[in-house]
Amino acid sequence: MSARHWLALFVALVLLAPLALPEFTVTLLNYIGLYALVALGLVLLTGIGGLTSFGQAAFVGLGAYTSAVLTTSTTLPPWLAWLGTSTWLTLGAGLVLTFVFALAIGLLTLRLSGHYLPLGTIAWGISLYFVFGNLELLGGFTGMTGLPPIAVFGHALTGGREIFYLIWLFLLVGVVATSNLLDSREGRAIRALRGGRVMAESMGVDTARSRLVIFVLAALLASVSGWLYAHMQRFLNPTPFSINVGIEYLFMAVVGGAGHVWGALLGAAVITVSKQWLQDVLPRLVGQAGNFEVIVFGIAMIVVLQRAREGLWPALARWVPTRAAPRRVDTGAAALERRARPAPGQALLDIEHVTMRFGGLVAVHDMALGVAAGEIVALIGPNGAGKSTTFNIISGVLAPTEGEIRFLGQALRGKSARQIAALGISRTFQHVKLLPQMSVLDNVAIGAHARANPGLLRGVLAGAWHLERRLEQRLLAEAARHIERVGLGPHRFEPAGALPLGKQRLLEVARALAADPCLLLLDEPAAGLRYLEKRALAELLLELKAEGISILLVEHDMDFVMGLVDRVYVMDFGQKICEGAPEEVQRDARVVEAYLGGVE
Question: Which of 90, 497, 589, 594 shows the greatest Cβ crowding within 10 Å of its Cβ?
């Protein structure tokens, strides 16, 4: 069966569930749907984006309390009171308020990294919880009663069976929209956040913006869940929005499969059903009441993290045969716009007196280097000479301690890797940086990310509803052309991590070319390639030179370098010791000494 057939079967089961199941089971399914909405946001935030949040329950409360206040308060000013005339208006108000809060909190919290980020989410999660409990307007810890039911076409959804369809409709829409978003231009940028931020920034992706986008989207999904919860329960107190519940939501995402959209639903179902069952069974076994299920969940989490770090969904998917739909790329799609090439011989890159210190270690000292338009230049030297550090300085990954760098006359010092990439510098890496679970095609398409920018809001909405198909086909067609050019055509739809090292390096070359650079920085591109592959790479680099693309490469294979480049710079212990034509450099005594340790 195809994925679409499984989805249709699932929808049919959802439609039949309230008609065939008892009231208690329908209520349980309602809670699973509500929790899955929140866990879906955590899949996007934590599983895909690599940002751990313990505070999502607070955003659930924000959506719930906004609607509760607007529909029950009699002391609101007229310009606010009219929103309470419809629960659907209060949904919009809750989303707007959540957006504002999430944007403000995200701008502050996402500046943190490492273990400080989860601690930051705990801080604002606890803060909002106590705001809910201490404000008289919100009923304090006693709570609020008398919330009206949601009405659809004038019919009030007062029972669990009636609101069931609305809850699961929101969940299915959220799942489909999230899946579509992750399979789009914006989605590739989001998927690059976890383990690929340096690479993504070097390809022109604004990773700070992508982090903020998923933070806000996760908050909005939680807010919708809170709105549904408030009008299903028709009573609110702060307990369901505490930090403990926030941890449970994270459990759901991790247990189900934090990197998989459908894992949110699986995790919510497993935790909710298990919790209900344990609450019935454990008191009988222990002989007294208490939250003993928390202990069991803690042990279960440790087991899952040890035995199934990807969660339960990948294991389930292996048991359920699914026929993937063949992916199509319209190779005839219109080409993306290309940047103008500088005139041959024009000064392209100038490095003067560049020094890079790491504490007391001087990795690069007083380095000077130049590349003119239309030439291939090599930067060689023994291991540890400072070549890759120089590349990182040029591309903006590192900021130099001293010195000046100019590209087409524009100073690069102080610019980010993304800003430098936008000027026309693209690169590969000494240690291959790719997204192993993504296809070769999607990895290369990241290189073209900055060449088509529909804008943030339009990009997110278009991705969620597949409204950017024409732009997406142009991006994929551009990626496919460069994949063919480097000889990886047969591997287009394979996971990038399944390729051998040599082909992964060729993938990086294709990704760098997709950015349409004026200057291409290649860090050991021939490492891991066989003889014929090296010859094909050399021919490709000469073709690029003829097209006006300048190349600065680091390489240890001297046979490959000396027959290809126009000029050579040699580094040793962080300093330039020689420069000139290949034949001159090969005869230089300092170069011989650096490589061979001197000769008698």
Answer: 90
